[in-house]
Amino acid sequence: MSxxxxxxxxxxxxxxxxxxxxxxxxxxxxxxxTHLDTCAYCRRRYRFEVSLRRYIRTAVAEPMPADLKAxxxxxxxxxx
Amino acid sequence: xxxPTSADTRRVAxxxxxxxxxxxxxxxxxxxxxxxxxxxxxxxxxxxxxMQEAYVRAFRSxxxxxxxxxLRAWLLRILTNLNIDRGRRKQRAPQMxxxxxxxxxxxxDKLEEAEGRPLDEERVIEKLSQDSIVEALTQVPHDFRxxxxxxxxxxxxxxxxxxxxxxxxxxxxxxxxxxxxxxxRELAEEAVG
Lengths: 80, 193
Prior knowledge:
The structure holds 2 protein chains of 2 kinds.
Chain A lengths: L7 H13 L5 H13 L1 H21 L5 H13 L2
Chain B lengths: L5 H23 L1 H11 L3 H17 L10 H15 L2 H4 L14 H10 L5 H5 L4 H9 L3 H12 L4 H8 L3 H24 L1
Helix pairs in contact in B: 2-3, 2-4, 2-9, 3-4, 4-10, 6-11, 8-11, 9-11, 10-11
C-alpha cells in the first residue's frame, strides 16, 4: 500500500454500500470506479455484493395473498 | 336553505373523482407495499393486519395526501407508524442480538476462507438458502431492520427512507450500515458456522 496516505481498499470498502445505493457524489463515484477498475481484490467483493443484494431481494420477496387484496378493496367500499 | 349552485355540484363531483382515483392508485400499489410490510412486521399474520389497518387509515385520510408526491412512501409512512404503535418492540426479542457487527467484506471473506480460494460469487451465493436469509433478517434489531427493508427491499432512497421513518438522513445511513453488517454476520454464521 505504499504511495498512499490511506489504504485504497479500505476506502473502497467504505464507499461500496453507498456506491451500490447510487448515493455517492459524482466525484466519489469516479473514485470508486477507478479503484474497482484496477483492483481485483475489491472487484471480486463488489461483484459478490451485487449478486448478494439481488439474491436477498429475490429470496425475501413474498407475493401478497390474493384474499388480502380482496379485503383491501372491500375496505374501500365499506368506508364510503 | 340555499340550493347548491352548479359550482358546488362540480366541486363535489370532482372530490368524488379524486377520491376514487386515490383509492385505485393506493390499491395498485398494495403488492409493493406488502412486500415491504411483510418484513417490517414479524410474521405474515402481523403483516396482513398491518396492511388492513394502514389502508383503513389511508382511505380515511386520503385528503391529506398531496397529489404528485410519492404515494408509496406516504402509505409506508402510515404503515410504519402503525407498526410502532402496535408495540412491536415488546413482542419479540431480537433486540438481544449483539451489535458487534463485522466489516462490509466479512461475509465474502468468511465464505472465501471456507472455500480456500477466490470465490465464484454467483455460485457461492447458492450456499445461502432462502430460509437462512429470511431468518437472518429477523435477527436484525427492529430500528436497523426498518431501514434495511425500506432501502434494500422497498428500493427507497436514503432521503425517502428518512421521511418515512421521520429520522435524519445521517441516521438512515448509520443504521443501514450497521444493519447490513449484522445481516452479513448472521448469514456468515449460518453458512460457515
